[in-house]
């Protein structure tokens, strides 16, 4: 820290809550190159600015920027996979549409439903049964067979899952179904005097405590709602009831997708 300004030193001590005598122990880390780069990436991912990280490591901001991007040349996938000792057996899977070098691609992700830790990430130019089949096959090679898969209602995802994991329990995300149903109720029944009643029943399908109460709300909505709502509920909710009975969501992978938004 000899080449750092005194004011900056005080700021570092204040942030890290260390005394002057301990600063060399806390900041004078002797790290291997890969470990140093990963520590920088961790600080940055946790929201620390490049300016503060540069002060901590005694380098300029451009150097920190270069260290972050140099991680791309390291086999990070193998490094991360080697660190995963345990996983819950329950995974949330989803795709995200992103533009890479001016070309639209899909990022397919599998995230541990319990810990929220990403287990597998792949980029595909298209999204179809083959893409999901390749994705699930690679997952099977690395981790084996999961106990539970949670996803949205994508038909290509369902087909790919059936090819590789035909007997694995598959649950649909309650949040996605509730959002889609509410959207259709507003679309088809916005001038209906019973609109509020429809919305209460829609919420009951996914939020009532007992399975029987949730199913009753679905059947009641079919009785009261218009023909388009009745058709949607019968086909996409009551028709998929076994995949909604556990009341689960794919929030873990949705949170991970939001993190992807920040770095792309």
Explain briefly what this protein structure is.
The protein is an alpha/beta fold.
Report the radius of gyration as a whole number of Å.
24 Å
Oligomer description? single chain
Percent of residues in beta strands: 5-15%
Strand order of the largest sheet: 3-2-1-4-5
Roughly what is the average pLDDT, rounded to an integer? 84
Shape: elongated
How helix-rich are the residues, as a percent range?
A: 55-70%
Biggest pleated-sheet summary: 5 strands, mixed
Strand segment tally: 5
Low-confidence stretches are 20-30
Overall description:
- With 264 residues, the chain is α/β, with parallel strands linked by helices.
- It is 56% helix and 14% strand.
- The protein has helices spanning 6-16, 23-27, 33-45, 50-57, 61-70, 76-83, 129-143, 155-164, 174-189, 195-207, 211-224, 227-237, 251-263, and strands at 90-100, 103-112, 118-124, 148-151, 169-172.
- Strands 3-2-1-4-5 form a five-stranded mixed β-sheet.
- Strand 4, helix 8 (155-164) and strand 5 form a beta-alpha-beta unit.
- The longest helix has 16 residues, at 174-189.
- It is elongated, with a radius of gyration of 24 Å.
- The two termini are 34 Å apart.
